[in-house]
Amino acid sequence: MPKTPSSDIAFTPTVKAIQQRKGSRHGYAQMEARGGWQTTITPELEGVIGKVRSFYLATANAEGQPYIQHRGGPPGFLHVLDERTLAFVDFTGNRQFITQGNLEENAQAFIFLMDYAHRRRIKLWGTARVVEGDRELIDRLMPARSSARPEQVLIFRVAAWDANCPQHIPQRFEAEDVAHALAERDARIAELEALLA
């Protein structure tokens, strides 16, 4: 029996029928013949993940009701544990626990990374679980100099991932990065003005 392409995690028979009807099935069938999407974290993806300051985590409950939650922190707060596993400290927030409740009913999860500066989006499908009460793991993953209060750890196991084209992504920059670039520019202007004087 032929191996199912990893992209079948999203390309259900219904999706493939729509792709056929709308003319994109041929291209995706060629990608599937090569195995589909990536299933392990490549060094390039790890580099992107190491710079992430925020992402979106999607879950759904047992009835299929979806939920999306923003997660943020300093660069490096989303950790690569191995070639298939991501983890982060889940900080104390509004205490609704919808994501955790959903994961107890349905382990399927999705991470959406948006890099506005480089106009790229990365989609990761997988499963997730919450680890409570593991102080050693929290200490290992907690961002340095963070004032956030750790609640627990979320472990995400990657099943497949894909990076999309930059079409329609507006280019935006982090305020901290812009401030740093402007400070460097201003310092250079001051240096040149001093030379001219």
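(the above was protein one; protein two follows)
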Amino acid sequence: MQAHLPLLIALAVAVLLGGFILVLSAWLGPRRASSVKEEAFECGNPSSGPARDRFGVKFYLVAILFLVFDIEAVFIYPWAITFADAVRGHNQTSPLALLLEMLAFVAVIIVGLVYAWRKGALEWGPTPAMFNPEPKAGSH
């Protein structure tokens, strides 16, 4: 229990400080409501439609692709430190083994990028089929 005491103190201070700030804000904050203040907006822009509109899948797909490649960058940095230590002889791991592991990792990422690219996940403009759809058979 003695080892966890600083953690519990930090957690208690964080909760109390958060609660104190909320209470202070409610107590000292302005209370003049108006129709303009009640209107929802995002990033300074007035709302342009209902909040339950559906977004295209492309937004989510791009977000997932961003996360994949962002995480790749996060993994490359510690590998570079380990690789530099191995080249200097400060690590028992072979630099060639580390290099082959990173090449395999980057190859998997490149295969994923090529797959997403060929599937059109990186295309933002409208496809020609959206403007000129082919007529269905027998619909003349």
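Reviewer note on protein two: The radius of gyration is 27 Å.
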